[in-house]
């Protein structure tokens, strides 16, 4: 039996471990009825964990527009950079909001490498060259447009470590997010690719019944809600200035520093993508 290596609390790869796709899932729809999501893998030893890499790739995604993808991508990027890590921000949305935010970022602040991935490469430049990131890049954060082509979804899922899904606490958003999660699992094969899904609820003032319903639904799928972002004009003001909320000088904005710090800690500690089920399995095996 190969020992399971640990790096701090980040589990390293274990080739003989069943892939996340093999973990029996018993998803329920928002109403609590069983959903038909097939177990994508029948061979427990076929799939391997994604290779552990020092770069953490985080993609902010949801088919709904206006739920906070750009806000989360830019705030997370500025937070990573403020911790002193080389950070890249990719923008796949042709509206280019993240790139506009980056252009407005005052010089002298921790730098972020921007890639306008929505643009075709310039003449004489390959796509690979356009998409390159500085050596020592530790975080790659990707902002995406609303809607997506189903044909691309598996590629997008396969190439990232974690998909962060912002959701607004309204019934319409919650239902469309449930459909989106189903697509990530079924068509994107998130569990086969060992891509972790995590929810960030955005603009939450109060815990509404709709939010509680969403959280119950996610719990059953073992998809955690890892942060709750409050509704405040500071996000709008930070967006206009090329800043993260924690870079604003207003005292009230500093309250949110902890939210981002905890969010980044969670992302760092869950890059291995082990679900609770797998962690328990690992502990059983190594006992
Ligand atoms: N937590 C928040 N508090 C206040 N305003 C917010 C918050 N999150 C997003 N917004 C605002 O809502 C609008 C849509 O957010 P945005 O991040 O652009 O969404 P998306 O990228 O998903 O379309 C923007 O004007 C943004 O400043
Ligand atoms: Mg956007």
Query: Strand sequence of the main sheet, in spatial order?
Result: 5-4-6-3-7-8-9
Q: First CA to last CA: what distance?
A: 11 Å
β content, as a range?
5-15%
The H-and-E topology, N to C, reads as EEEHEHEHEHEHEHEHHHH
**Globular, elongated, flat, extended or rod-shaped: what is the shape?**
globular
Describe the structure.
- This protein is an alpha/beta fold.
- It has a single domain, classed as Rossmann fold.
- Helices cover 34% and strands 15% of the residues.
- The protein contains ten helices and nine strands.
- Strands 5-4-6-3-7-8-9 form a seven-stranded parallel beta sheet, sandwiched between helices. Strands 1-2 form a two-stranded antiparallel sheet.
- Strand 4, helix 2 and strand 5 form a beta-alpha-beta unit.
- The longest helix is centred in the middle third of the chain and has 16 residues.
- The relative contact order is 0.19.
- The N terminus is likely disordered.
- Magnesium ion binds next to helix 1.
- The site of magnesium ion has 4 residues, from helix 1.
